[in-house]
UniProtKB/TrEMBL annotation:
InterPro entries: CheY-like_superfamily, NreC/VraR/RcsB-like_REC, Sig_transdc_resp-reg_C-effctor, Sig_transdc_resp-reg_receiver, Tscrpt_reg_LuxR_C, WalR-like
Name recorded for this polypeptide: LuxR family two component transcriptional regulator
Keyword Secreted on entry: no
Residues in HTH luxR-type domain copies: 152-217
GO BP terms, alphabetized: phosphorelay signal transduction system; regulation of DNA-templated transcription
GO molecular function, one term: DNA binding
Sequence ranges assigned to domain Response regulatory in this UniProt record: 3-119
Length: 226
């Protein structure tokens, strides 16, 4: 059973999240928080596998709560909920170590897919978030989108063929175990490849590597909901 904490300052949003997650037999919502500080307190008490945090909350926001959870409750992995127009916040959360990013207006099944992926050790970027992050990085930097994509392809070109395959699956939100089954290798081999990929790409976490996969255009379609 995947134990999940949800946090949003709007009761109706929390109710909606709970209702969606309740449709999955393998997911249990163990608590609801009204803000980031409350989420951290509940996570320390219950140690859920996944915390689903709104990016904007009063007091401690989702980005600050993510950093605090990484420091004090590292067993809890974070999915950030965002809306359109919050691209700067997404980039901050990406740098802060969030493992997943979902758009509030996305399809309900994306929430379930994302929770399962993150609980299994993967990084999950909804297709909408991935596209917006790539476009926003280009819009706010000196590089054009075409230049960023060309640069990402060059970076991916430094990987071995097998590492490239692993990165493609990582970009779609697959865990090490799922990638191992796709490639017919042991999970330890995939873990070693992921460590090498992060080092070669110069990124700190799987979510940042997933962005590179999307920039390079190699992320495979995400797996269908089981």
């Amino acid at each position: 059973m995947i134990r999940v904490l949800i946090a949003d300052d709007e009761p109706m949003i929390r109710a909606g999240l709970r209702a969606v997650l309740a449709t999955a037999a393998d997911i249990e919502v163990i608590g609801e928080a009204r803000d980031g500080q409350h989420a951290v307190e509940l996570a320390r008490r219950h140690r859920p596998a996944v915390a689903v945090l709104d990016i904007r909350m009063p007091g401690m926001n989702g980005i600050e709560a993510t950093a605090e959870l990484r420091r004090t409750v590292p067993v809890t992995r974070v999915i950030i909920l965002t809306t359109f127009g919050e691209d700067d916040y997404i980039l901050q959360a990406l740098g802060g170590g969030a493992a997943g990013f979902l758009i509030k207006s996305g399809e309900p099944e994306e929430l379930i897919i994302g929770v399962r992926a993150v609980a299994d050790g993967a990084a999950y970027l909804s297709p909408t978030v991935a596209a917006r992050v790539v476009a926003h990085l280009a819009a706010t930097g000196a590089d054009t989108l075409a230049t960023r994509r060309s640069s990402a392809r060059d970076r991916v070109g430094t990987l071995s063929p097998r590492e490239r395959d692993v990165l493609a699956f990582l970009g779609s939100g697959l865990s090490n175990g799922q990638i191992a089954r796709r490639l017919h290798v042991v999970e330890g081999t995939v873990k070693a490849h992921v460590s090498s990929i992060l080092a070669r790409l110069g990124v700190d976490n799987r979510a940042a590597a997933a962005v590179v996969a999307h920039e390079a255009g190699i992320a495979v379609p995400p797996p269908a909901q089981q």
